[in-house]
């Protein structure tokens, strides 16, 4: 879902450099299987951020079939490490196939299970934590992620504008999760937060 003007989105997409073949394959797979991904506009931003802070350790809370991990990996040195989490073994197999195609498979440790349970096994500190699990679980993820970020580390969350449903008068459980998360994101004294209004809204926080 894109919350910005369609013509603006089209302009940005046309202006972007051509993507690697593996991204095009993954984007086609996502469309055909109706699998949500962050998309190339957010993907290039993830890569820029990894490069800008020279990220060496990244944790993904929800990795799908590896799309965001490949964007991150391209902005890291080869000795960097990305911990991926996903609830489906099938998605892990698909992810590792694409990671191998991209040449980044050696940089990834991929765990199957609930992201909130897996992150508890790690103390960090991480340079970046990406949050893209089921939306009603977002508030819990913030509580678990922030203590595991280094100072100056980034906490990035997809879908924080939730197709505009955050403005609903009678939000469903999923939407309530996003609304509560956004309140906590901006209310925390441990991070400096903003929302980048691209695609479906990207929550962006820096650990203080």
Structural key phrases:
208 residues, Rossmann fold, 41% helix, 7 strands, single chain, alpha/beta, seven-stranded mixed beta sheet, 8 helices, globular
What gyration radius follows from the Cα positions, in whole Å?
16 Å
Principal-axes geometry comes out as: globular
Largest sheet: 7 strands, mixed
- List the helices and strands in order: HHHEHEHEHEHEHEE
Chain oligomer state:
single chain
What is the end-to-end distance? 31 Å
CATH class: Alpha Beta
Helix content: 40-55%
CATH architecture: 3-Layer(aba) Sandwich
Description:
By secondary structure, the protein is of the alpha/beta class. The protein has one domain: 3-Layer(aba) Sandwich (Rossmann fold), CATH 3.40.50.150. About 40% of the residues lie in helices and about 20% in strands. It contains 8 helices and 7 strands, in the order αααβαβαβαβαβαββ. The protein has a 7-stranded mixed β-sheet, with helices on both faces. Strand 2, helix 5 and strand 3 form a beta-alpha-beta unit. The longest helix has 15 residues.
Brief description of this entry?
It is built from 8 helices and 7 strands; from the N terminus they run αααβαβαβαβαβαββ. The chain is α/β, with parallel strands linked by helices.
Please write out the topology.
Blueprint: H1 6-15, H2 21-33, H3 39-52, E1 57-61, H4 67-73, E2 81-86, H5 89-102, E3 108-112, H6 115-119, E4 126-131, H7 138-145, E5 149-158, H8 173-187, E6 191-196, E7 202-207
Parallel strand pairs: 1-2, 1-4, 2-3, 4-5
Antiparallel strand pairs: 5-7, 6-7
Helix pairs in contact: 3-4, 7-8
């Amino acid at each position: 879902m894109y919350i910005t003007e369609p013509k603006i989105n089209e302009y940005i997409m046309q202006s972007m450099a051509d993507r690697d073949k593996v991204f095009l394959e993954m984007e086609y797979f996502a469309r055909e299987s109706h699998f949500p991904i962050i998309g190339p506009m957010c993907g290039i931003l993830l890569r820029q951020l990894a490069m800008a802070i020279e990220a060496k350790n990244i944790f993904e809370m929800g990795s799908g079939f590896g799309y965001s991990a490949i964007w991150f990996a391209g902005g890291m040195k080869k000795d960097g490490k990305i911990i991926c989490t996903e609830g489906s073994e099938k998605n892990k197999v698909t992810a590792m196939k694409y990671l191998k195609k991209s040449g980044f498979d050696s940089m990834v440790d991929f765990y199957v299970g609930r992201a909130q349970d897996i992150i508890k096994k790690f103390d960090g500190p991480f340079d970046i934590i990406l949050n893209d699990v089921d939306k009603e679980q977002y508030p819990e993820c913030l509580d678990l992620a922030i203590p595991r970020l280094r100072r100056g580390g980034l906490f990035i969350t997809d879908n924080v504008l939730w197709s505009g449903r955050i403005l609903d008068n009678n939000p469903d459980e999923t939407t309530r999760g996003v609304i509560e998360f956004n309140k906590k994101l901006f209310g925390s004294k441990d991070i400096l937060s903003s929302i980048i209004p691209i695609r479906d809204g990207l929550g962006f926080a820096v650990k203080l």
